[in-house]
Specification:
Rossmann fold; three-stranded mixed beta sheet; six-stranded parallel beta sheet
Length: about 325
């Protein structure tokens, strides 16, 4: 069935789609550190992955042997809830175009990156891979989730029909350098970091956070995710998608406390319960991942502290996408 898992040829042509995004940038950095000498990279202005003809031409010219599909339209609760057409249409086109071209031009190894939001809103915790399609999705991001589920199914279909060693990884909530700190488009941790750091800088005595603070979230530093991606490409060749996480979670209230400590904010905190909480808990079961020999290394305390440092050092050039 295609090429069996093992160390990737460091001279292989490796295309990282979405290399400027949170995950793609971390993967690209890791591959460079690991002496991959033939990385193929294109910005969204150089190659619009939603344009089928352009993607086909690109693959025809570059013929990547390994494809890491980290490109996606992403956002937080507000963005997903208010722009479902964009999240569904853009992500479906990106995935189908890249995978069809990768198949057509002979990529033996492909890693598709999804999201833990593929699982039912009320899935039993921790969430096993086989919980997929067993119940209703979280309504605020169901369009994005459906697109990612379609990507998983396309990978499985290619494995079944063409015998390619393609795999999918479903990360938990990721954070770290290069995250999106937009007030309206960010996920929970970068939103908290921005909010608390601004409160500290402005001398505010109260911070208002969204929701009740009771939902639980599993957080994984993006550098750990990058390591997991390379690890899976070199060790795993199964039909199931693979959960990628740490196996532990915290309440958003606890996460907010860690952020406050990291930025040095000691004021009061209030919770706006009129704002949505989202899924009550999303803790991934990582038994399958750990069976391949992978373990995360960066603690949430260490990761949040280093991300705060990075945020402060790069505040003038941050991604602020809505």
């Amino acid at each position: 069935m295609g090429s069996l898992p093992g160390p990737l040829d460091r001279k292989a042509r490796v295309y990282v789609a979405g290399h400027r995004g949170l995950v793609g940038a971390a993967i690209t950095q890791l591959l460079s550190e690991q002496a991959f000498s033939n990385l193929i990279l294109r910005t969204s202005s150089e190659l619009d992955l939603r344009d089928r003809g352009s993607v086909d031409n690109f693959f025809s010219e570059t013929r990547p042997e390994v494809v890491i599909l980290a490109a996606a339209k992403v956002g937080g609760i507000m963005a997903n809830d208010t722009m479902p057409v964009d999240f569904l249409s853009d992500n479906l086109r990106i995935q189908v175009n890249v995978m069809d071209a990768a198949l057509k031009y002979g990529a033996e190894r492909l890693l598709f990156l999804g999201s833990s939001c593929i699982y039912p809103k009320l899935a039993p915790q921790p969430i096993w891979e086989d919980s997929l399609l067993t119940g209703p999705l979280e309504p605020t991001n169901d369009a994005y989730a459906i697109a990612k589920i379609a990507g998983i199914k396309q990978v499985q279909a290619v494995r079944r029909q063409y015998g390619k060693s393609w795999i999918s990884a479903m990360p938990t909530n990721l954070y770290g350098p290069g995250d999106n700190f937009s007030p309206t488009g960010s996920h929970v941790l970068p939103a908290l970091i921005r909010r608390y750091d601004e409160a500290k800088a402005q001398g505010l005595r109260t911070v208002m956070n969204w929701g009740s603070g009771q939902p639980r979230r599993e957080l994984m530093h993006v550098s750990d995710m990058a390591r997991a991606c390379l690890h899976l490409l070199e060790t795993y060749d199964g039909d199931s998608h693979v959960n990628v996480g740490t196996g532990t979670d915290l309440t958003i209230r606890e996460i907010a406390g860690l952020v406050a400590d990291a930025v040095g904010y000691d004021g009061a905190v209030e919770w706006d319960t009129g704002k949505p909480d989202g899924t009550p808990q999303k803790l991934l079961d990582v038994t399958l991942l750990e069976s391949t020999g992978y373990r995360s290394r960066i603690s949430v305390q260490e990761g949040i502290a280093s991300t705060v440092d990075w945020y402060r050092e790069n505040s003038a050039k941050l991604r602020m996408r809505g």
